[in-house]
């Protein structure tokens, strides 16, 4: 039986322990970077616009989009990776919390053997319960726990940002596919008109009423129309594959669900957030803030560990039974061992670790500022693009209406025999070109809307940092 006695801790040490237990490391508060603009430079052209809703994709009127977003959130490998990283961060936070308390384990150790002749074999059996607890006198372990908690929060915010970004990317791919599908329909109509004109020009050249050069030009235009059709076939297939990759589903099954739908005409968004408060609307900025806070806590804890002593307790209690030469001996086992460790000299290793932790904090703070400034620039660029795209779409729609009326009038004249079939085909081709330009304008406006949605945080509403 072993007895290991120790002197009781001085009262001053106990008081120090109690006072240290009340000290909690502080996380740095976020402040806007210096020299940020007080307001957006790009004027909002439509003050009657709507605020960005959390489920903004449901307001665009495309029946396929909500289902695709839900399926992408459920099946995306990118989100699966983000969820796995969140689970890892949460387990690390739990481990850091567990490290603050005592550990307890039990051990059963039966044995039989002979140490050396001429001793007879002996039997022993012990059962013990052991505990070890490192007292966090000055807050180093609590800083590690809080840092792990901040990283877990950052992982959760990163997952949220990935979800919002994926919704934008799914909408972009769907609208790009719809644009290519509509352009392919126009391209096939234009190809048919160009072929009709080329045949008419060829017949006129054979009759001697049109020069061979002009007939060759018609053949060239028809070839260009066929090439444009092939290009839109490729574009439509490429965007379908992009959509299938985002949704993590079979492209053929997705294509069967899309149907035919015009591109939406999104309503203008009211930007109700200022550059200095953009952190409250973007999950990626909030995640960067949490990473900076974690780095600051790591630096705080490392600075404590560099100079502060460490106090730990280990305890053991149990029962034992020994049998030697037919004699049995049983008894209690206990051991209490406080340990105080004082840092003396390590060649600068701890101070180097502290300096490295502080450098990581500076890096994280600079990264947050860079992301903040980048986010401000993204909103400004998206606002400018939205204004230009809205004006361009409006003008393209006016032009398309003019050419459609011209083509309708030409059809009436052709039925009355007032103009030739070639003149009618040329007017109809001009109407097709104008319709294609209007489609491009609609595609650009929806792309500008989605860019602004992404720059504003994708509808994230958990804005309490």
From TrEMBL:
Question: Is the keyword Ion transport assigned to this protein?
Answer: no
The keyword Glycoprotein appears for this protein: no
Pfam short name (any one): OEP
Signal peptide per UniProt: 1-28
Q: Which UniProt keywords apply?
A: Signal
- What family does this belong to? Belongs to the outer membrane factor (OMF) (TC 1.B.17) family.
Q: What is this protein called?
A: TolC family protein
- Species: Pelomonas dachongensis
Tell me the classification of the organism that encodes this protein: Bacteria, Pseudomonadati, Pseudomonadota, Betaproteobacteria, Burkholderiales
